[in-house]
Structures are given as structure tokens and as C-alpha cells.
């Protein structure tokens, strides 16, 4: 993508493919999701169903908010709540053949945006870092 | 900044001023830092000293890693560790008169970058969102 003009770049040129994206399943308990988020270091990851369709995203803040009691963090609750009960579902998505500018608009309010096919199967994610790296190489071209 | 050309825009045109930035102090216990991060929803925030100089940044992952034991999250440890013991200090900084392209380069690997003056006093932060919004308005200009 070094020599492609910014306007000709598609989402599939910049996205991280699904096999390289950390994710959790809708039926996982929150304890598992928090471990995946802490071990990977990511703020939030996609949530998939057993058929590999995208269902939402889940982040550390939502999980910690769920267990924040009056006096302390109630960690014992983590194993009783499933990811699908607290995940965020009102999220934008992109398709592989969307253009660079569609990615730019979607990433203004989200650190990453999920890429799905026409039936909703998960293809990967587009991140702000990938977009900014491309803008930098376009700047210096 | 709508009508300024991208190349003429400075960091001070886009940054969030210090009074609007959530932060913690070097001597705060981790419990306080985690509460600020959960209540604000931010992944990481700047760490300042009592004189308002920048000392580092702290995020949810570092705090949770610190208390992750073999069997469970050991929450009781949160009140025994100070922010300055675990904060990250190898972070880039910008100054108010740096240009747009300096901000772009710094933000490729960091969701936000702290802005400081020549003596290290904290002026604010430049975020990826502010940069992307300016790129979008330049795109449509
Ligand atoms: N292990 C690592 N190695 C190097 N740099 C790292 C890193 N983890 C985080 N970063 C840096 O920190 C930024 C913010 O990460 P965060 O986890 O908050 O937010 C991330 C995370 O929530 C998600 N993400 C990125 N890569 C992912 C992956 N492979 N699997 C699942 N989620 C991913 O997309 C968001 C934006 O990612 P982006 O790359 O634009 O921006 C990343 C990247 O610049
Ligand atoms: N309360 C809120 N209202 C609306 N949108 C929100 C929001 N909290 C987060 N977001 C959105 O999510 C992005 C990632 O936030 P995050 O907390 O991981 O990462 C944030 C956070 O660590 C820090 N940050 C942003 N504003 C801050 C502030 N006022 N005080 C302290 N830290 C801030 O800079 C990072 C990048 O911020 P950026 O704006 O580029 O990107 C933000 C923004 O697009």
C-alpha cells in the first residue's frame, strides 16, 4: 500500500485479519473476558458467536463498572455474568471493499472498527494506528 | 482551525487543555487511580507531581496486571501500592508550538500524547480523535 494513492486504498488493504484479532465468545463469563483483556493489554476486543458472527465489543471499563460496589470491587461477581449481558452492541461496522475515507469517518469516535461480510461473519478490524501509519506515508510520499 | 491548512496547524490548535484532562498524582494509591479510570471511562491518564509537572501515564492494564495473582485478582493490594511505583515513564511529549506532522508521528503508537512546557509543566494532551477530526475536515475542504 506504500505506492497506492490514499483515495484508492480500501479497508481490506489496511485491516488486521480475523485470525490475528483477540476476541471473546458471547457465552464466556466476564472473568474470562477480563483475563483476555489484561493478558493481551487491549482496551476492548470484538465479541463473536459460535458461528464466528460479530455480536458486539467488550472492554475493561464496562466489566469493572459492572462489579464496582459501594465499598470495593466485587470480584466474585465476575464468574456469574456472561459477556453477552454487558457487551456493547451499538457499534459501527465496515466491509472489506469500503474506501479509506469511510474508515477515517468511522474511526473518529472509535479506536477500532470491526469489518464484517454481508452475512455478518467477522473479517477483521481496522485500527486508528493502521490508518495513521498510512496517512504518514502519504504525507511523505 | 477549520480554515487553516493542515501544514500550518500547531499542537496548541488541537490539544485538550490541562484543566479538562483527568489525571492522578504520583503519591495516589492504585485504588484511587483505578476508580478515576473506571469512573471517567478512560484507558489511561497522565500522572502529575504536586507542582503540576508531568511524571508519567497510568492505565487500567498496568494496574490490573499488578494485582493479578495465580488464582484471582488480589484487590486488597490496591491500597498498598502507589501510582509512581507502576506508572509508565518512557513516554513521548510534545510542546504547544510543535506542528501537525509532529503530532501525527507521535500519535502513531500512542492513543494520546502529553504536551509540556520547557520546564516540564503539564499543558494538556493531544489525542488521536482531535487529529483525525482535523484530517477529515481537511479532506472535505
Ligand atoms: N500489544 C501491542 N503492541 C503494540 N502496540 C500496542 C499494543 N497494544 C496496544 N498498542 C498501541 O496502543 C494503542 C491503543 O491500544 P488499545 O488496546 O487501547 O486499543 C486497541 C484495541 O482495543 C484494538 N486492537 C488492536 N489490535 C488488536 C488485536 N490484534 N486484537 C484485538 N483487538 C485489537 O484496537 C484498538 C486500537 O488499536 P491501535 O493499534 O490503533 O492502537 C494501539 C497501539 O497503537
Ligand atoms: N467520555 C468520552 N466521550 C466521548 N468519547 C470518548 C470518551 N471516552 C473515550 N472516548 C472515545 O474513545 C476513544 C478511546 O478512549 P480511551 O479512553 O481508550 O483513550 C483516551 C484516554 O486515555 C485519553 N483521554 C482522552 N480525553 C481525555 C481527558 N479529557 N482526560 C484524560 N485522558 C483523556 O486519550 C485517549 C485517546 O482519546 P481519543 O479522544 O483520541 O479517543 C477516545 C474517544 O474517541
List of distinct ligands in this structure: ligand 2BA
- Greatest interface: A-B, 28 and 28 residues
Strand order of the largest sheet of chain A: 1-7-6-5
- Distance between the ends of chain A: 12 Å
Helical stretch tally of chain A: 6
| Cα gyration radius of chain A (Å) | 17 Å
How many distinct beta strands of chain A?
Answer: 7
Mean pLDDT of chain A equals: 95
List the quaternary state of the chains: homodimer
Helix content of chain A: 25-40%
Apparent shape of chain A: elongated
Main sheet: strands, sense, barrel of chain A: 4 strands, mixed
Helix-strand sequence of chain A: HEEHEEHHEHEEH
Low-confidence runs of chain A (pLDDT<50, min 5 residues)? none
* Beta-strand fraction estimate of chain A: 15-25%
Supply the helix-strand structural class of chain A. Answer: alpha/beta
How would the blueprint of this fold be written?
Two copies of one chain form a homodimer.
Chain A: H1 11-14, E1 16-17, E2 24-25, H2 30-40, E3 44-48, E4 54-59, H3 60-67, H4 83-86, E5 93-94, H5 100-107, E6 112-116, E7 122-127, H6 128-140
Parallel strand pairs in A: 2-3, 5-6
Antiparallel strand pairs in A: 1-7, 3-4, 6-7
The complex binds ligand 2BA (2 copies).
Amino acid at each position: 500500500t506504500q505506492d497506492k494513492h490514499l483515495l484508492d486504498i480500501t479497508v481490506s488493504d489496511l485491516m488486521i485479519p480475523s485470525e490475528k484479532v483477540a476476541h471473546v465468545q458471547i457465552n464466556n463469563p466476564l472473568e474470562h473476558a477480563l483475563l483476555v483483556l489484561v493478558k493481551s493489554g487491549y482496551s476492548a476486543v470484538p465479541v463473536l458467536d459460535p458461528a464466528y458472527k460479530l455480536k458486539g465489543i467488550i472492554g475493561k471499563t464496562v466489566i469493572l463498572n459492572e462489579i464496582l460496589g459501594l465499598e470495593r470491587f466485587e470480584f466474585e461477581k465476575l464468574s456469574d455474568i456472561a459477556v453477552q449481558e454487558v457487551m456493547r452492541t451499538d457499534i459501527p461496522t465496515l466491509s472489506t471493499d469500503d474506501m479509506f475515507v469511510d474508515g477515517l469517518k468511522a474511526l473518529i469516535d472509535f479506536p477500532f472498527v470491526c469489518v464484517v461480510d454481508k452475512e455478518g461473519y467477522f473479517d477483521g478490524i481496522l485500527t486508528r494506528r493502521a490508518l495513521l501509519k498510512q496517512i504518514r506515508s502519504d504525507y511523505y510520499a
